[in-house]
Structure formats: structure tokens, C-alpha cells
Amino acid sequence: MGLWKDQTCEARDPSEASLWKSQPNGEKINTGPKPTIRRLSSATANFDDLHLGPSVVVPPKHMEEPSDAHETAAALELAKHQLSVVGNEGTSTPSTRPETTTTDNYAFAFDIDGVLIRGGRPIPEAIEAMRVLNGQNEYGLKVPYIFLTNGGGKTEQERCVQLSRQLELEISPAQFICGHTPMKEMAEKYKTVLVVGGEGEKCRDVAEGYGFKDVVTPGDIMKDNERTTPFRKLTDQESQHSRKRNFGEIEIEAIFVFADSRHWGDDQQIIIDLLTSKYGRLGTTSESYDEGPPIYFSHNDIIWSAEHEHTRLGMGALRTSLEAIYESITGKKLVSTVFGKPQLGTFQFATRLLQQWRKDTFGINKPPETVYFVGDTPESDIRGTNEYNESSLSENDWYSILVRTGVFREGTEPRFTPRATVDNVLDAVKHGMKREMGKATKKKAMAQSAVDGEAMIEEHPITEAALDGT
Ligand SMILES: [Mg+2]
């Protein structure tokens, strides 16, 4: 387990130091092997207003291209598999190839918060559900799966290490899509960008890991001009981690909200300053209000399921509020681009990831007939799955399963109807596998019936001949 994790992390980020991260309190922690439990970001957020206005657009075409991140990780997984095969050669015990027990007919995709994790802890049935998928089931089958979360704020490999520990199994970055993962494909498009959200300066690391060349954070701007935010000054530690820049000479070409803002007021002030600027130059004001940089959000979940008994505000709420502020100042609608579920481009991205994962890890070179998507939020998980399934983009049957362990509450009517509703993720896994076994049994019976039918046709002339002969 340690081998592949280390290999993957090293390959994804050449610096081993990527596992050692400075915390807001100045401490450095190893985000690799040392157990840490943190609350995940807004992975389970629910959103109601996706279709309220023109400000949501479908993710751009470049999302259709595979990212190097999962390719690299997938290549390492393949190498790991090959090493294990080589390691078994020459021994008296024949190696068991994974594909001999892995189904190629179907796969699972999971939302994380409210499905597998809640408040930083695994939902009780989640560990058992993963064991079932990994072969501990009555059918003796392994079922491939991926994770598709709107959350973020950490690198994919850090999230995988954390989730691996929580669910007591190995998870590769090649199985994992965060809300901001598709933003990697924007790194070539812009030179200097503002990255907002997450713990401390963490999202700067994520963006730089994606290949963004010049990443600015709100802390850098507050450090350069402390009058930017009249009601909050940087702490000494925040100031230490912020970079001194001369923003009078810098044009910020795009704004990316990578993860949930920890300081809404300050972040909104800085975002509005840029949106109303001339070409992203702080200190300027556009007269036409159409010269500011574009803004991207990694998802649009208004609420999400955290430790609190009630849902909490997510990134979609920040966006909604920014739209209102922008319009009240400029009289214009704010146009933004949103990634994450339920955007169909995100499901296309997930389809490619799943295909690559199945191919490189299990040697399966055909698309699954069915993908079971398990989520807790009707507005993002169920809506996205259903709409993707009904669109011309989907080549498989995407089957939505709603669980009762997160945002959705029993007794309410989900705005988007799932194909199945179950108590928890273990029931979801069992439901999908049982359904597949039913389909397989039916298919087998039909095939047998066809064979029997053919046999009768073959037998009939013989019988006739025999009868004619008597
Ligand atoms: Mg969720």
C-alpha cells in the first residue's frame, strides 16, 4: 500500500515536500502516511438555482481532453500491476489476474460527502460497501469504481490518501475527480490568475500543481495593500505565507474559486474589485464594466451536508451573493462559468476517467453497459446523472441511486427523481449488484431459450425424417 501511494505522490508532484504542508498555525504536517482527519469541503452541497439565469454555462470543450494527472497516476497503477505480475512469475503459485474476477459489464461512481463521509468520519456502511465492491460478496466479483466529488481544496493525491485511510482501502488519484480537477485544463489559457478558497494558501499549491504559471491569492493582495479589506488584517502567519507583489503592474487574467471561501467578505471585496477593473489591474475601474477578467467556480452547490444537524452554505451561495452584489454595483448580470456536478461536462470527464481506470487497472477495453452513480443531493448528483444519461453525450446507462445519509431527507420529495432510493451506500452497492445479477440471469435464460429453440429446429427435421422413415 505504501509503495504505490509513495510512487503516485512522487510522480504527481516531483517534490517530496508536497506531502509536507504548512498549516495556518505554522506547523508542518505530513499529509502522506500520518493519519489526519479533516472536514472535507463542500462535496455534498445541494443547489437549487442552477437554471435561474444566464450566468451558468456549460464547461468548455477543453474538458473533453484527458488530463495528465490521471494519466500519470493510471500509468503508475499499471506499472504496479505489471510489477506484481513479474513478481509472481517463476513461483510455483500461479498468479491470479485481476480481470478474472472483475466484471466488465458495470461500474460504480460515488459522491463522497453525505454518501461515504460525513463530518470527516466514514458513514458506518461505507467501509463494508467498499469491501463488497472489492470482491467480498456472494458473487465473487470485483466491481470497478471511481469518486466524483464537488469538493476540493487539496490536491487529488492528498484527498486520496485521506479517503484511503478513512475507508480502509487503496484509492488512486486515477479514480478521483474533485470539483476543481477540470480546471487543470485551463492552466495553459491564462498566465496570471487569482485563486480563491480553501485552507490557508493550500489552493495555490493545487493550482501550481495543475500547471498554472502565476498564481495570486487574496492574501497576496491584502499584503500588498492592507486597505483592501478595512475590517480584517492578515495575521502574522498569513502574511508570512503570502507573497509580496506589486499589483500596480500586474494584470490578473482570470479568477478561479477553487474551494469554499473561509473569508467571504474579504474574498468578495477582492473579486468585485477585479470584476469591475480594467483588464484585471487592481486599482482601476472599468467604465463599461465589461473589461474585467472571467470568473470560474469549481461547483455551484448552495448547501452541503457537514457535521451540523442542518445543511451549511456552500460555494453556490457565495456565487449567488456575488451575482447580487455585482448587479447592484454595475447594473449588469455577472457571467460566470461553473464546473462540477450537475454539469454534463463533468460527467463526460468522469466517463473518460472511468474508461481509463478500467483499462489500465483491470485490462477492460470496452465501456461498461451501466454506471451506477450513488449520491445524496438530488439537485447535483441525481439531476446530473439523469440528464447526462438522457443526453446524446452518454454512451452508457447512467443509473442514479439516492441515499438517505446526507442532504436528502426522508419525507421530502426530491426535485429530481432517482431510479432508486436506498438507506445508505451499502444498500446502493447491493442494489446495483443484485440488479446486474438479475440482468445476467435473464440474459442467460434468453440465450438458453434461443439455444433450445435452435435445438428444436434442428431436432424437428430429424424427428420428421424419423417419422417419415417409419
Ligand atoms: Mg454529497
UniProtKB/TrEMBL annotation:
Coiled coil: none annotated. Residues 1-35 are annotated as: Disordered. It comes from the Eukaryota. SUPFAM superfamilies: HAD-like. This is Uncharacterized protein. Transmembrane segments: none annotated. It comes from Stereocaulon virgatum.
